[in-house]
Amino acid sequence: MCNPFKKNKKEDVVLNKFKKQLESKGLLIDSIDEEGLIHINAEESDLKVSLENVRRNYERDSDDSHITDLVDVVISHLSKKEDWGNINDKVIIQFFPNDFEFDNIVHEKVTNEFSKVFALNLNNGFSFITTDDLSDWKINFEELKKQADVNLEILLDKAKIEFEDIDNHKLGMINIEEIALKSSCLFSLKIKDLVQNTIGFPFYAVIPVRDFCYIFAEEDFEYFSQRLGSVVLDEYNGSGYPITTEILKFSEMGVKAIGKY
């Protein structure tokens, strides 16, 4: 039988670090399947973990925090057995391209390129919410969406928009302590209140990755849409957590893609 931890020509640094950190938390890797997914059996759950995104980010900047964050997500998943009333304030949204393997993860399509994914923000990591979780909590999808909206409104109260003046055109950037939730802020029902006195509403945005977004006014669409392409593509291609290269319009009608790089 093949030993998944046996050193090959090139040591799998990320896997070894992930394994070591898991063991420090009292968890073991049960197996690694043919697709490279890591299986962790704990508390009657078979957790399937992919290191693909972490490897990309680690290769980019050699930062162990990417591995630690993933371990935190695993630990967080094991904390989801709490009652809904004790955990509902942790519900948040993240975004993934539509070619992501959602399986039974609760999600909602936004555009042809990406979807909202509902998750819990626990221990500085995100744990996906599944249809099984909804059954355990005895709630439906609409209740989950309403709670996410409430939590996004609270999140938006902590956010600020900083503007850079470029040739008399305002380019906005979300500033929030939890940087992985920057793009999430834009999907709050209260985003109109935050922007209407600065760039106005409707407005446009690009969110190539979850911790990076630009916003700009309708009147500046032609100016910025012609200048942001290279930045958007660099961010999208260089991150382990890409979302979309689309230009998004936020209006009373919701969110709509009006083009892509």
Give a description of the structure.
Among the domains are: about 70 residues, no CATH class; about 100 residues, no CATH class. It is built from 10 helices and 13 strands. Helices cover about 35% and strands about 30% of the residues. About 0% of the residues have low confidence. The protein is of the alpha+beta class and about 260 residues long. Helix 1 crosses helix 3. The longest helix has 17 residues. The radius of gyration is 20 Å and the shape is globular.
Structural class: alpha+beta
Approximately how much beta-strand content do the residues carry? 25-35%
Number of helices: 10
The helix content is 25-40%
Low-confidence residue ranges: 4-9
The tally of strands reads 13
How would you summarize what this structure contains?
The protein is of the alpha+beta class and 261 residues long.
Properties at a glance:
261 residues; alpha+beta; four-stranded antiparallel sheet
Q: Which helices and strands occur, and which strands form pairs?
A:
Layout: H1 13-24, E1 31-32, E2 38-42, E3 45-49, H2 52-61, H3 65-77, H4 84-87, E4 91-97, E5 107-109, E6 114-122, E7 125-128, H5 131-137, H6 141-157, E8 160-166, E9 169-175, H7 182-185, H8 191-195, E10 203-209, E11 212-217, H9 221-225, H10 229-238, E12 246-251, E13 254-260
Antiparallel strand pairs: 1-2, 2-3, 4-6, 5-6, 6-7, 8-9, 10-11, 10-12, 12-13
Helix pairs in contact: 1-3
